[in-house]
Amino acid sequence: MVTRRSSSGSTRQERSGSGRDAPDDRPAPSRAELDRRRGAGDSRGVTDRSDTGSPLGWAECDPDDPTIVELRSYLAANNGIRGLEIFRPDEIEHIVRAFRRDGFAVVADVLSPDQVDVLRAGCDDVVEAVLAIDPARSGNRGSHRYSFGAVSSTGSQLHRPEWQMLVDLPDLTPILSAIFANPGYLLRRASGDFCLPGAFRYQPLHSDMGDWRPTGTTPHSSFHDPRGRLTTRDLPCPYVCVNFLTVDATPINGPTRQIPGTQHSREPIPSLDQEPEWMRLSTVCPAPAGAVQIRDVRAWHGGTPNLSDEVRSIPNLEFYAPWYRDPIGPGISYADHRRLSEHGQRLTRFHVVDSSEELVPRVQLRATPRPLRATSA
Ligand SMILES: O=C(O)CCC(=O)C(=O)O
After folding, report:
1. Buried b / exposed e across 101-128, counting CB within 10 Å, b at 16+?
2. What pLDDT is recorded for position 24?
3. Protein residue with least CA distance to atom 2, ligand 1
4. What's the CATH number where 356 sits?
């Protein structure tokens, strides 16, 4: 990997030949090649089996199907945002500018390699537990796709130490304080997404925040202008999602697609059938494990095919601006809350359960919400 400074002063990390300007001429490994490596005792990238030995994904198609092989090669050569900027954590001014302009920013080295290992292991534990109750890999965000929050009865993974580790990171807290121009922001929830190998369909583009609907039809997005003039799109960013990369984001392992500058758009979000090709290829890759994707949740985004042999987990923390709040549920025990830093305790003060109460999260599988069901590939 080559690291170089861009003209804006940011640190850009590129793999030679992986952007759209310079297609990668190394073909993506086929299933036969992976099997060969496994037979030769080469463990590189051989992660497509769970600890119990059952396949993690590929429940709906064969990784060697010619259509899949062709798509894999096409993505390897073409997928990724051209000129994607990857910042260093201390480039706070540049990060805030990119975030406000594009609706997202990517920052490398927020997690140390040890923290990446801890986080990935925590994600793998959750993945194993979920797959045990979803043998068909139906997912809860489309087939082979899952929300870490929605698989927990608390709607959050904040009860797990791996997510607690993320709450007040020395390199992230100053960035969030700068984005909100105030350190008084709040944790909304600890969640994220994972997609399995064989998630071959695109997830429709969407925004994580809608507008007000009559009471009872949604617990979220309470913002309502009775004059009918302002929508959530007209506000400064009401809530931010920080996704942590636990593996390198590559063109073929389901990088998030992110459409720059859409956070204030009132245009209808294109369906899969309407979406132009450049949007399909507008993905956050390549980017290294340990980096974060900081997203204005209103910006259009969606999942993309994971045609690799690894689970791509991007656990997250979601934060409300100091001036915005929707419902927050209990997610962390009193004892665990006491162990967080002072700032961490402030951020999570609406998540803590009473010292006399026990928190017993259960693993669950809910159906995929209708707008996220792919109607075409
Ligand atoms: O998996 C991804 O990269 C994005 C997933 C997502 O946006 C969602 O499920 O709402």
Report:
1. ebbbbbbbbbbeeebbebbbebbbebbe
2. 35
3. 303
4. 2.60.120.620
Q: Which residue lies with its CA nearest to atom 9 of ligand 1?
A: 141
Mean pLDDT, rounded, for 51-77 = 90
Residue nearest to atom 5 of ligand 1 (CA): 303
Residue 262 covered by a domain: yes
The rounded Å distance from CA 329 to ligand 1 centre is 21
**Residue 327: pLDDT over 50:** yes
Q: Quick check: 156 pLDDT over 50?
A: yes
Domain containing residue 290: 54-209+237-372
The pTM of the whole model exceeds 0.70: yes
In a domain, 5, yes or no: no
Residue 38 domain-assigned?
Answer: no
Mean pLDDT of 277-302: 98
Mean pLDDT of all residues belonging to the chain: 87
Can you list the positions of beta strands (E) in the chain? 2-5, 11-14, 86-87, 104-107, 145-147, 186-195, 239-244, 257-258, 292-296, 301-302, 312-320
196 Cβ closer than 6 Å to some ligand 1 atom: no
Q: Number of folded domains in the chain?
A: 1
Q: Ligand 1, atom 7: nearest CA belongs to which residue? A: 302
Q: Examine residue 225 and state whether it is found in any structural domain, yes or no.
A: no
Does residue 109 have its Cβ closer than 6 Å to ligand 1? no
Q: How far is the CA of 296 from the centre of ligand 1 (A)?
A: 13
